């Protein structure tokens, strides 16, 4: 008799418990207002979300922060709003990519200036050992390489495959980038 009562209570508990999540309709993967506004490229909505007190350092499930998303959208206006609201200029995603590394790859000079001015570390590397200088050299972005060198980027660091920024410049066949790196002391 006790076993039947326990089994009945157990089954009743399971069925009651299984209905609750369906009624709640919770989504753990939905973007917040701020992340959605950044992904949409809507500066006014980004400003509104920040004024409502949303955290400027929030990230999606891949660790991509709102600032990194703004840099990916090549938007100095959104990046500036986020930084002025306290976004961490050096916070990386799960792959170790920082906003400066993303800006170095895209080559937006306004974003690079903004990030450096706000304290971006010029030699932070991602999980592959790539620095912003290496990424800019690989992309053939001479103007970015020049700016990163002026900011103190180290020319002879190597990634996890042993390549330096000069090696990446040679692989991308960009003579101007190679010349800049050699003038800065790359070997």
From TrEMBL:
Q: Where are the ANK repeats?
A: 62-94, 95-127, 128-160
InterPro entries, sorted: Ank_Repeat/CDKN_Inhibitor (IPR050776), Ankyrin_rpt (IPR002110), Ankyrin_rpt-contain_sf (IPR036770)
Signal peptide (UniProt feature, chain positions): 1-24
Alphabetized UniProt keyword annotations: ANK repeat, Repeat, Signal
Domain of life, per UniProt, equals Bacteria
Q: Which SUPFAM superfamilies match?
A: Ankyrin repeat (SSF48403)
Task: State the protein's name.
Answer: Ankyrin repeat domain-containing protein
| Organism expressing this protein natively | Azospirillum humicireducens
């Amino acid at each position: 008799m006790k076993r039947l009562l326990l089994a009945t209570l157990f089954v009743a508990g399971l069925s009651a418990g299984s209905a609750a999540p369906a009624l709640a309709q919770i989504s753990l993967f939905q973007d917040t207002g701020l992340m959605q506004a950044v992904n949409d490229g809507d500066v006014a909505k980004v400003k509104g979300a920040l004024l409502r007190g949303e955290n400027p350092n929030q990230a999606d499930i891949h660790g991509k922060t709102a600032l990194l998303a703004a840099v990916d959208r090549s938007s100095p206006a959104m990046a500036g709003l986020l930084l002025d609201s306290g976004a961490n200029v050096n916070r990386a995603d799960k792959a170790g990519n920082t906003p400066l590394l993303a800006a170095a790859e895209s080559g937006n000079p306004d974003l690079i200036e903004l990030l450096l001015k706000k304290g971006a570390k010029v030699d932070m590397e991602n999980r592959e050992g790539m620095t912003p200088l290496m990424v800019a050299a690989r992309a053939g972005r001479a103007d970015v390489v020049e700016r990163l060198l002026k900011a103190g980027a180290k020319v002879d660091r190597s990634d996890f495959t042993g390549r330096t920024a000069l090696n990446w410049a040679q692989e991308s066949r960009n003579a101007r980038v190679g010349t800049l790196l050699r003038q800065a002391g790359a070997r």
